[in-house]
Amino acid sequence: MTHFLTRRQCLKSALSASVATVAAGLPLATRAQGLDFLTIGGGPSGGVFNIVATGLANVLRQSYPEAIIDVQPGGSGPNLLRVSGGKADLGITSASNAFDAWNGRDPATPEAPIKNVRGLMTIMQSAVQIWVDGNSDIRSIQDLRGKQVSAGQPGQTSWLAFERLLAAAGMTMEDIESDGGKMNKLSWSESHNALRNGELDAVMWLSLWPHPTVRQNETVRPMRALSFDDAVLEKFLASSGGFERVTLPAGLFEGQAEAANTVGTNTILFASDKMSDELAQNITKAIWDNLEEFKATHALLGNLSAETAGKGMVVPLHPGAKAFYDAQGIAYDASSELAE
User: What span, in angstroms and rounded, lies between the C-alpha atoms of 194 and 65?
Assistant: First the structure.
């Protein structure tokens, strides 16, 4: 059961917060606009997904000033599960996670593919990045043999992407751990603290770019992202849905003298297929009408435009969002029209 358009759940969830509103004789929800309560799945506190979801909530409150809009902590995988299960109305996820969940390849959904979510908008792009000290002699993925490396923790999106990248290069994690190397199972912050302090040789992550944390590393040492051979990238793309080629430009990091060729996946805003076409269209319109304010939420939203909004969502585009894009003349690609 979903939360939007559910007044009883709104009252139950927000009774204490609404006492003042009741006392003032004001409506608890935007009845005329058709929205009482909306839940957005974001990310860990202080993380990019959480910041973006909070900015989205602020934008939507301008169109739905009397609605209760709640941002919950989450992540790419958890948000798919929550929206699919009716515990959230909107979520942020990566196209690669959405693709794997749609096809039942995500570790969290092996027995129950998630096919009841629909895309609203592509908002950012993440890329597979392996960061090293800009002065390091590590120049290729093969050079990671025998090194101290982190790619998050087993089962996480970045760990799985790294396994696929290594396989495309004819390697495994065991190859890295030969000759004294180690796959260190660390969190994002632990990984970058260790890289900054020289305790790790490389950190691999599927991350938005350029990420502020990597910029912070450069207060201590220059950073450089590895570039991957065409053959490796082609093999990776052949085995991994929801990805595309990405070029990280020269100068992106202090140690980045040359462009780095890699792969990336889009970050998408999505909803349940049970959300009404009218509400999905109005939410998309609310974002678009306040686009510059939304983009000001985080620098990583800077590339969001009419050229990117409807591209690379992987899951089907919600009919309501499609209606808005058609009315605005905004193009959306074939990946947004998968068979339902």
Answer: 44
